[in-house]
Write a structure and sequence with these properties.
GO molecular function, one term (chain A): aspartate carbamoyltransferase activity
Largest sheet of chain A: 5 strands, parallel
Structural class of chain B: alpha/beta
Number of helices of chain B: 4
CATH topology of the largest domain in chain A: Rossmann fold
Pfam families (chain A): OTCace, OTCace_N
Number of strands of chain B: 8
GO cellular component, one term (chain A): cytosol
Strand order of the largest sheet of chain A: 7-6-5-8-9
Function (chain A): Catalyzes the condensation of carbamoyl phosphate and aspartate to form carbamoyl aspartate and inorganic phosphate, the committed step in the de novo pyrimidine nucleotide biosynthesis pathway.
Shape of chain B: globular
Strand content of chain A: 5-15%
Distance between the termini of chain A: 12 Å
Oligomer: heterodimer
Largest interface: A-B, 22 and 18 residues
Helix content of chain B: 25-40%
CATH architecture of chain B: 3-Layer(aba) Sandwich
Strand order of the largest sheet of chain B: 3-2-4-5-6
Largest sheet of chain B: 5 strands, parallel
Number of domains of chain B: 1
CATH class of chain B: Alpha Beta
Protein name (chain A): Aspartate carbamoyltransferase
């Protein structure tokens, strides 16, 4: 494995499977009464969050604490960053505090990549701009594998705002590595120009793709990033690309529904679909802690680089 | 492999396990509250064999599981992160039971130390005992086995290799001469 986890595309198939298998063994830790392992005792993990993301930060924090690492949470609001400190100076400060790993969430694509050139510890990308979110893709793959048994040859459909979604890009790269076939479904305005070079299919017609899908992953409509008119109205989007009860009925009986959260119920996904037994949305949260434990263990559990 | 010799062949391993199974029954007065926990990979296989034998001898079906100790090792930082083994506890857990840890080779005692720490996070057994197929000496911690298949005097430069039918296709314990690495 690399020393950093910046992109899901950096993971070879063996690396990805090692992370999933490690997570499989660690899953039982969340079920026992003492949910703690001594493995990362004395190591320091810094959560460096320049964007708000309560669930991802908490998930990384829980994962690090279950491995007995010391956790320092650093959020940009009210910190030296709001006083004008550069990313590099922030990084050097954290380095001086002895951070063994930096988990970074940043609004600019590529920030974790830059950070990795400045610090000696491991850098874990917890979402950068519209680029990548590799641990989300790993937990999604883990959730799929637990429900479906395997990923080889499985048909995964990712629906929604691919343009602004780091989850979609990371998932396409990782699922392709793991042998699944990914189809992206979105209005043409919400697909990036480069999508033709991604290892996946593209469709504009959700109803045609649903009956052939083993997994349907709905992406959140990111209202905060909608600075232009990407679609005429929310209602029209919901009609054409929302997963409602009728569309849910068209899916194969054993197909599952996923959503990285937070959801807009009634917009991209109907409440009754989100709450059905075939929805993995709550599992995905629990699996998030497990997969992040696996990543932190594999990056920090061995000899120091 | 030229510098290795077999110290236990298949029949020897069979006899040793049979004796250990009898000893466990004797020492625990019928193994009524015993749980066998093997340390992966080969300890887990040996635990299953011991469980089978105890059932054959006395007709009691005792719970058998495995306990991975990787996350509790004291030498994690000396090597790149290792893949994890499988931990599987019996459904009724280990609280109030007599846990017999099973490993293939007892050497420095550090693996057993890690297993004791792991057990501590999983429950509270009334007692913990240790069974090992081979005790090769050179302890670095105050730990001893309750049941030993064979005491094997070794030099620190030598290596002990255990092969088991279920994993390796044959049963044997080899002593590999020093220098080979």
């Amino acid at each position: 494995m690399n020393r950093h986890l910046i992109s899901a595309g950096d993971l070879a198939k063996d690396d990805a499977l090692l992370i999933l298998d490690t997570a499989e063994e660690l899953a039982s830790v969340s079920e026992r009464s003492i949910k703690k392992l001594p493995t990362l005792r004395g190591r320091t993990v810094v959560n460096l969050f320049f964007e708000d993301s309560t669930r991802t930060r908490i998930s990384f924090e829980a994962a690090a604490k279950r491995l007995s690492a010391d956790v320092i949470n650093f959020s940009a609001k009210g910190s030296s960053v709001s006083k004008g400190e550069s990313l590099k100076d922030t990084a050097l400060t954290l380095e001086a505090m002895g951070a063994d790993a930096v988990v970074i969430r940043h609004g600019s694509s590529g920030a974790p990549h830059r950070l990795a050139t400045w610090v000696h510890g491991s850098v874990v990308n917890a979402g950068d701009g519209t680029h990548e979110h590799p641990t989300q893709a790993l937990l999604d793959a883990f959730s799929m594998r637990r429900r479906l048994g395997g990923l080889e040859g499985r048909k995964v459909t990712i629906v929604g705002d691919v343009l602004h979604s780091r989850v979609a890009r990371s998932n396409v790269l990782l699922l392709h590595t793991l042998g699944a076939e990914v189809t992206l479904v979105a209005p043409p305005t919400l697909l990036p120009v480069s999508v033709g070079s991604w290892p996946c299919e593209v469709s504009y017609d959700l109803d045609a793709v649903l009956p052939k899908s083993d997994v349907v992953m709905m992406l959140r409509v990111q209202k905060e990033r909608m600075n232009a008119a990407y679609f005429p109205s929310e209602r029209e989007y919901s009609r054409r690309y929302g997963l409602d009860r009728d569309r849910f009925a068209k899916m194969p009986d054993d197909a599952i529904v996923m959503h990285p959260g937070p959801m807009n119920r009634g917009m991209e996904i109907a409440a009754e679909v989100a709450d059905s037994a075939r929805s993995t949305i709550v599992e995905q949260v629990a699996n998030g802690v497990t997969i992040r434990m696996a990543v932190l263990y594999l990056l920090l559990g061995g000899e120091s680089a | 492999m030229s510098d290795s010799r077999a110290v236990l062949e298949a029949p020897d391993i069979h006899r040793a396990l049979t004796r250990i199974a009898h000893e466990i029954l004797e020492r625990t007065k019928g193994a009524g509250d015993v749980v066998l926990l093997g340390i992966p990979t080969r300890g887990a296989t040996l635990a299953r064999r011991l469980g089978d034998r105890i059932r054959q001898f006395e007709g009691v079906k005792i719970p058998v599981g495995s306990i991975d100790i990787t996350m509790y090792r004291d030498d994690l930082r000396l090597k790149p992160a290792r893949p994890l083994g499988h931990t599987e506890l019996p459904p009724d857990g280990i609280d109030g039971r007599v846990v017999v840890l099973v490993d293939d080779v007892l050497y420095s005692g550090r693996t057993v130390r890690a297993a004791l720490d792991a057990l501590n996070d999983l429950g509270r057994p009334t007692a913990v005992q240790l069974a090992t197929l081979v005790d090769r000496g050179h302890r670095e911690l105050p730990i001893r086995a309750d049941y030993v298949g064979k005491n094997l005097p070794t030099a620190k430069s030598e290596k002990v290799r255990v092969y088991l039918e279920e994993i390796d296709g044959r049963d044997a314990v080899l002593l590999v001469k020093g220098g080979a690495q």
